[in-house]
Amino acid sequence: MEATGISKFTVFRKRPNARRSLGLTALLSLVVSAVVVAAPATVPVAAQTSTTPIQNGDALRAAVEAGDTDIVLAAGTFQLSEPLVIGKEGTKISGAAQPVSYDASTGVVTPGGATLIDAAESGQAIVVEADGVEVSGVAITGGEAGSKGSGGAIEVARNTTGFRLTDSTIVANTAGEGAGVFVERNAT
Question: What is the reported pLDDT for 46?
Fold first, then answer.
């Protein structure tokens, strides 16, 4: 039994076994060539990434506002003076993923070797307004959404999808609802 499509590549060979081998090789070569030629670019031209770890809150805000999609934070404290609003789809913020120390009697959070985002009670720490946002390896503290507000540390806006928070610590934030993370209606 002969496979369809292979025989036209094998008519110049004399041995039956060689025909199958040559035919399959030729067919695979054509398929691979077609895939390589037809493959779209895998890296968007407009994607921006942070090549060296960001060192402070102002640089973090600048990277988010510039639309950087892969933001790496160094260990240390990132002081925010207002909520960090993430509006670029697919933004990824990653930190050192280390534990923090929290003194319950004084309310002081010490980063040690961690990446600590501190909203310094100036409002929410992070507001997610785009799909596919990922935050990992950070500790978030000092978010203050008020007694009627929501999402002291993180608020995920209505109808936003695909938010992920991993390897992170949420500590010492306040709000009327969801002092840590508040996910609005129809958000995931």
Answer: 45
Which residues make beta-bridge pairs with 79? Answer: 118
C-alpha closest to that of 7 among 31, 16, 33, 32 = 16
**18: pLDDT strictly greater than 50:** no
pLDDT at 49: 54
Cα–Cα separations (whole angstroms), residue 160 to 89, 152, 163, 176: 10, 18, 8, 21
pLDDT tens-digit series, residues 56-85:
999 999 999 999 999 999 999 999 999 999
Between CA 128 and CA 147 the distance in angstroms is 20
Query: What is the token pair recorded at 76?
Result: 């240390």
pTM, two decimals, is 0.72
How many C-beta atoms surround the C-beta of residue 62 within 10 A?
12
Distances (CA, A) of 70 to 67, 79, 174: 9, 20, 28
Element (H, E) at 108: strand 108-110
156 contacts 184 by C-beta, under 8 angstroms: yes
What token pair was written down for 4?
């369809």
